[in-house]
Amino acid sequence: MPGNNSQTHMPRPTHMPRPAEGRPPQGAPSRRGRRRGLIAVLSVFVGVLVASLVLAVLQPWRKGDDAGSKESATPSASGTTLTVTGPEGKLAEKKGWAAPRDFIPSVSESNKQVIAKIPKLDDSSGRTLGPADAPVTVRVFSDFSCPLCTKLHNDSMDSLIKRAKAGKIRLEWRNFVIFQQYGSDKAARGALAAAQQGKMWDYIAALYKDVKNPQGHTQYTDETVQAIAKNAGLNMTKFDKAYSSQEVTNTLNEESQLAKDIGLTGTPALLVGEAFVPGAYPTKTLMNTVTMQAELAKQKR
To answer: Which pairing describes strands 169-175 and 275-278: parallel, antiparallel, or unpaired?
Structure first.
């Protein structure tokens, strides 16, 4: 998603063909008829344009996602550079960083309001790590059958967890189930059940350690989820009760609905402070984004 200082140019309408010279053949529409037809075409074009703008506002994160695969796009290595101004631009210039190569810039002001309205997870949820008053909150929306989510975990999660344990960030985990056909909803239920014992992060670590094909869509069953829970050292009596509970069902539905309500369409999706990071960006880019958001937060205090 472009930052708040990038500009998106709307496509120009296609030029209408110039009418042939001379009198129109018999049965051809009159000049007045052609004018009315042109007005009708332009009216349709304006209507589509307005509808597109409305969707862009209501679904702020829709960029680069394949609605068929439901996975966030893999970051491109193209040389495209976003123009970032204001305090963030000055910090980037000082550090010699270019967006999005070195960091992901903040979203627009309207999208900052969307982020600000996302409810914070309480420590009692078992799905947080790091102090509640950390300068940057990193919200992770993930699906356990998503290959890019596996890549994000293998490449970058350790770095995020270390910063959270050091008190530099607040890490929040939410499930966004989109690959239910592979049983990712079962794996997500397991994560929520583990969270009730304060061992969700142990469960997640055990889950990804057991992934045989990181490039594929890992499949889960009730039995494989139970095996993961045992490997994570969970109390299986408590786990089984929570796993099949209505409470877990409600929480899982609420999390996925929240992701849809704020316009997310793929995983992984990270909200790093006021920056939106779609897909599995390189760890350096992700951590630079954390650093940038921390310094911006410091300036606001």
So the answer is: unpaired
What separation in angstroms does the CA of 130 have from each of 9, 165, 230? 40, 6, 26
φ, ψ at 280 (rounded to 5°): -100, 80
Identify the pLDDT of residue 6. Answer: 44
3-state secondary structure of 232: coil
Side-chain half-sphere exposure of 283, counting CA atoms within 13 A: 12
Taking the C-alpha atoms of residue 194 and residue 234, their distance in angstroms, rounded to an integer, is 7
Q: Parallel, antiparallel, or unpaired: how do β-strands 128-129 and 136-142 relate? A: unpaired
Cross-sheet strand order for the sheet of 128-129: 128-129, 169-175, 136-142, 269-272, 275-278
Rounded to 5 degrees, φ, ψ at 99 are -100, 140
User: E strand or H helix at 259, and its extent?
Assistant: helix 246-261
Model confidence at 40: pLDDT above 70 = no
Average model confidence (pLDDT) across the chain: 83
Distance in angstroms (rounded) separating the CA atoms of residues 201 and 195: 8
The DSSP-derived string for 140-209 is EEE-TT-HHHHHHIIIIIHHHHHHHHTTSEEEEEEE----GGGTHHHHHHHHHHHHTTT-HHHHHHHHHH
